[in-house]
Amino acid sequence: MYISEITTTVPEDVKDRVPLEQEVYRVFTKRGIKFERVDNDPASSMEECKAIGEVLQAPVRKDVFLCNQKKTSFFLLVMPDHKAFDTASFSKKLGVSGTYAGAYRMYAGIGQRRGASQ
User: Fold this and answer.
1) Cα distance between residue 53 and residue 61, in whole Å
2) Distances (CA, A) of 70 to 9, 66, 67, 100, 105
3) Is the pTM value of this prediction over 0.70?
4) Residue partners of 12: CB distance under 8 A and separation at least 6
5) Is residue 82 part of a domain?
6) Can you name the residues that pair with 61 across neighbouring β-strands?
7) pLDDT for position 30
8) What is the mean pLDDT of residues 7-14?
9) What CATH number should be reported for the domain holding residue 96?
10) Domains of the chain: total
11) Is residue 32 part of a domain?
12) pLDDT digits (tens, 9 = 90+) for 72-105
C-alpha cells in the first residue's frame, strides 16, 4: 500500500480532489491553519488504516456510514479503532433499523469515497 511522506502543503492536484477535500484546504489556507497530511491508496482494512496512522503519528478511527431501511436518514458513526461495531445495538439506541448506506450514498452524502483517510 502506498503512503507518501508527510507534507504540510496543499496538494498540487487539489483541483482533481473530491469537493470536500478541496474545501478543507481552502478553509485551512484562508484561516492560516497548519496541517500535516499524506497521500495514500484507499485503505480497505483497519491494518492499512493503522499503517497510515503510524506515519502520521495519529490515532485511527473507524468511520461507518449508515442509513435507515428506507434510506431517508443517514448517520456517520466515528469510533475508536479497537471498538467493535454492533449494528443491532446502534439501531436500538437510535430507534431505527440501520444498515450500511453503501459507497454511492457515502460519496453523495459526505463527498468521501470508501477507504479514504481524510
Assistant:
1) 9
2) 42, 11, 8, 12, 13
3) yes
4) none
5) yes
6) 80
7) 98
8) 97
9) 3.90.960.10
10) 1
11) yes
12) 888 888 899 888 888 888 888 877 777 777 777 7
Cα-Cα-Cα-Cα dihedral sign, residues 52, 56, 78, 72: negative
Q: What are phi and psi of 26, to 5 degrees?
A: -60, -45
State which residues form the domain around 18: 14-110
Nearest to 55 by CA among 41, 68, 67: 41
Q: Rounded to an integer, what distance in angstroms lies between the CA atom of residue 55 and that of residue 37? A: 10
C-alpha cell at 15: 483541483
Cα 84–chain centre separation: 17
Longest dimension (CA), the chain: 45
Output the average pLDDT for the chain.
Answer: 87
The answer to the question of residue 2 being in a domain is: no
Q: Is 113 helix (H, G, I), strand (E, B) or coil?
A: coil
Q: Is 45 helix (H, G, I), strand (E, B) or coil?
A: coil
Q: Is residue 41 part of a domain?
A: yes
Mean pLDDT for the stretch of residues 38-64:
91
The H-assigned helical ranges of the chain are 19-31, 46-56, 87-94, 103-110
